[in-house]
Amino acid sequence: MSSPETSPRLRTPEDLADPAVRPEDGTIEPDTDSDSSYTKSIEVTDTESLKSSIIEYKWVHGRRFHAYGDGTYWGANDDRQQEAEDLMQVTISTSHIQHSPIGENPQNILDVGCGTGIWAINSDMADLHPSAEVVGVDLSPIQPNFVPLNCRFEVDDINKEWTYPDNKFDFIHLRYMTGTVPNWKDLLQKAQRQDITSHSTV
Description:
- InterPro entries: SAM-dependent_MTases_sf (IPR029063).
- This protein is α/β, with parallel strands linked by helices and 202 residues long.
- The protein has one domain: Rossmann fold, CATH 3.40.50.150.
- 18% of the residues lie in helices and 16% in strands.
- The strands form three sheets. It has a four-stranded parallel sheet, with no helix packed on it. Strands 1-6 form a two-stranded antiparallel ribbon.
- The protein is globular.
């Protein structure tokens, strides 16, 4: 007669945790499998952090909307909307990242209403121009955490006064802003103040 089988010991969540992140001694080991050409897009310090009011999104009829600049942008910022915006970008830019001249060596590029950041990141704008700083601005902090070293994102309302110094950007990219800009003349004047070098493009 065989001996009775013993029940396997129940495993706890701690048993299932990755040993590299198991908080036995209160420390978390860093992930050593990272790509050195990418960095976190938002470095949070004691003096620089996203206000909870920005990341506490609003929910309406099961859809998620931005909280910063409430009412400024009509569209949702949930996964469904992000996928649709990324699909539009991929569809439109299958042959060109941008259709305007950008100059041979741009140093400062601004992506207005950057959404998910696909134009700055996945369209390889930051990679194509490694000496340039690519800045994406949007109402929602929905961009990925890891981006090329020369790319960063800011949460801001482009309809308010811009705080960049004059003549800052060589190229300003803006798309899919229908219904979000109450005064196009004002927005374009702001952009021209930022982008008036001899080789620049708005």
